[in-house]
Amino acid sequence: MKLDQPATALQWYSKGLQRFPDEAFMLQGMARVHEMLGEVQASAALYRRVLSRDAGHIEAIASLASNFFYSDRPEIALRYYRRLLQMGVHSAELWTNLGLCCFYASQFDMALTCLERALALAEDDVAADVWYNVGHIGIGIGDMGVAFQAFKVALAADPQHAESMVNLGVLEMRRGNVEAARASFRSAARLSPHLYEAQFNGALLAYKVG
């Protein structure tokens, strides 16, 4: 893996599985490699094999939960995340993911409760991400005031949080604050050149103002 030869790594893992069938450590390694290569289905299948050998494997449960969430099945992802809670895992990231699953499963009251727990546990390095997701839920329920404040707090926690800048710019654009929106999009594009949303919304703003 350090030589950036994932295909060779998979071959060695396969040889290892011939000697040690269904060894959870080998399966986990293969799953990580497939996930790194963007082969989500192959990774998920291997993580399921890991769980068949070790039902309490935290990484496998979390990865499958994430896979179900991004496959538009938040209700199933919610079961996996709840399983992690039952196992004693408590972190800001877990509560944030629970909140998002509840939100997309239309359990809005539970979503806010989960995000409150996430904020209570959040360290400085993840606080901005939690507030960013609070802002998204604010937009989802139509409370633009909450969304605006959440993105502001996210930027106060991490001034380099480009995603919050983009969303703040969108809200400023809706309010008619053209210069503030333009400044947000430019800052986001400078901080994260790979972030297409900043470029797209900047172009959309330029088009609207002629």
Helix and strand arrangement:
Blueprint: H1 6-19, H2 24-36, H3 40-53, H4 58-70, H5 74-86, H6 92-104, H7 108-121, H8 124-140, H9 144-157, H10 162-175, H11 178-191, H12 196-208
Helix pairs in contact: 1-2, 2-3, 3-4, 4-5, 5-6, 6-7, 6-8, 7-8, 8-9, 9-10, 10-11, 10-12, 11-12
For the record, the CATH class of one domain is: Mainly Alpha
- SSE order, one letter for each helix or strand: HHHHHHHHHHHH
How would a crystallographer describe the biggest sheet?
none
Residue runs with pLDDT of under 50 for 5 or more positions: none
Instruction: Calculate the mean pLDDT score and round it.
Output: 93
Compute the number of strand runs.
Answer: 0
Describe the structure.
This protein is mainly α and 210 residues long. Among the domains are: 72 residues, Serine Threonine Protein Phosphatase 5, Tetratricopeptide repeat (Alpha Horseshoe), CATH 1.25.40.10; 51 residues, no CATH class. α4 runs antiparallel to α5 and α10 packs antiparallel against α11. The model has no long low-confidence stretch (mean pLDDT 93).
